Inverse folding.
């Protein structure tokens, strides 16, 4: 079945370490997104990509990096520069044109210890 | 002020009650999405609408473009409907702006 797969589901990181969250989709979608969710807040856009080898910063890109080398993959690296990385991270994808259904992964819980 | 606002933030209902969650937005949109987030965190898309009304099972979503307002209704609510319901607006291309969500709890 088509869908989005995020891994890992739970991740613990020591302060000062980089960590990479995986997001893979087999929906043949052009657009992919990374969102961060904190308790009591709406989803906030970290980065998005509308085509392979291109991506744009979202509203809270500082301390994060992404790559889009393949259409189906959009990994997110949480760097040591991210001051408050403990959060729930969601990957999503949609057809590039606006107004299309968006599909989400199951999310990744990142805890910095 | 958020571009997308939902109300109420929290809602508790008894099984069988009719439920309404509201969403107001302050910008022009190409589409309005209603999403459901389960306790484990996964999100599924319930509806995407740009006008009128859509129905799926016990769920109904409506939108009034002139008033910049959308509602999600759940008829004959059930404890399994307990989740966070999120309204999101397609403002620019395929980017979404999200409301803060409504935590719904349906008691048996």
């Amino acid at each position: 079945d088509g869908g989005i797969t995020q891994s890992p589901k739970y991740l613990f990181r020591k302060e000062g370490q980089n960590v990479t969250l995986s997001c893979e989709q087999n929906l043949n979608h052009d657009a992919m997104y990374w969102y961060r969710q904190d308790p009591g807040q709406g989803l906030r856009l970290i980065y998005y990509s509308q085509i392979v080898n291109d991506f744009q910063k979202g509203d809270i890109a500082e301390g994060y990096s992404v790559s889009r080398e393949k259409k189906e993959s959009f990994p997110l690296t949480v760097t040591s520069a991210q001051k408050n990385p403990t959060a729930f991270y969601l990957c999503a994808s949609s057809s590039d044109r606006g107004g299309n259904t968006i599909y989400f992964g199951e999310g990744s819980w990142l805890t910095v210890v | 002020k958020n571009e997308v606002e939902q109300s109420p933030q929290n809602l508790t209902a008894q099984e069988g009650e009719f439920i309404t969650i509201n969403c107001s937005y302050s910008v022009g949109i190409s589409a309005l999405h209603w999403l459901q987030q389960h306790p484990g965190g996964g999100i599924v898309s319930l509806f995407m609408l740009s006008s009128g009304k859509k129905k799926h099972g016990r769920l109904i979503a409506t939108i009034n473009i002139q008033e910049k307002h959308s509602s999600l209704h759940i008829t004959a609510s059930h404890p399994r409907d307990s989740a966070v319901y999120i309204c999101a607006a397609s403002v620019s291309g395929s980017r979404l702006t999200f409301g803060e969500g409504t935590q719904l709890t349906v008691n048996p």
In short: The mean pLDDT of chain A is 91. The two ends of chain A are 36 Å apart (CA to CA). The interface with chain B takes residues 31, 33, 35, 37, 40-45, 48, 50, 58, 88, 90, 92, 94-107, 109 of chain A (CB under 8 Å).
